[in-house]
Amino acid sequence: MLMHHLRVLPLLVRMHVRSKMEYRGAFWLDRLAQILSYGSVFATIGILLARFDTLGGWSWPELALLFSFQLLAYSLGAAMSFVQLRELEELVRLGTYDTLLVKPFSPWAYLVFSGLNIGYAGHVILAVALMAWAVLSVDFTWSVWSASFFIAALISATLLTGALITMIGATALIWVRSNHLFSIFFGFWELTRYPLNIFPGGIQTILITAVPLALTSSVPVGALLGKPIPILGDWAGPVALVAGPIWVLISIAHWR
């Protein structure tokens, strides 16, 4: 059964990509619009830094690294989950989800890979370009250990993002209506573009525990750069690394 899944998944992805690339001009114009949209967000942060020099003790290149890390982790995780799980509500409401249950295939795998969202290409392009500049500009001495931690933390943040989105979408299997929870998710997600220490203690606690999106941005990046991390302290680095796998296990149990 596992080998059957592995053989079918590339076919599902290829079919979906071909359908999305039918109108290539429109596709790339939409990606350009995404780049401009998120670029304007970063420009807003730049305006703040031009006036105040630092934000919560973070300099301009450090905030660029934080922003690009958060955007890239979200893009990779959401490409495997967001649109697919957002549509699950309608599948459940209309009863068409039942057709997936009679297929000799994992419903989750079919949903995710038949709708792999290549539309996040614009996010990835901007995030990688900005991250490359930030890595070269930040006042930090890179080593094999720090580079390995950075990559591992990025993978963990990607897994955590996908896990949280999966849990929100899977709630439709019980409540039918679950998409309103995405508004809460993105409300907190937008806060994670900024250092955790600029927020009140209550919000800091929420962003580390109940809605642990700080573990996809300022916690791992702050731990890498040696910034003081509220609540977690010296445990920030290890927690950032294990958060993704742990929440994946939680999301699997929630889905089941």
From TrEMBL:
Segments passing through the bilayer: 28-52, 64-83, 108-136, 142-175, 196-215, 235-255
Claim: Manganese is one of the keywords in the record: no
Domain of life: Bacteria
Keywords (A to Z) from UniProt: Membrane, Transmembrane, Transmembrane helix
Keyword Chloroplast: no
InterPro entries: ABC-2_transporter-like
Pfam family, one: ABC2_membrane_6
Protein name as annotated: ABC transporter permease
Species for this entry: Rhizobium ruizarguesonis
Lineage of the organism: Bacteria, Pseudomonadati, Pseudomonadota, Alphaproteobacteria, Hyphomicrobiales
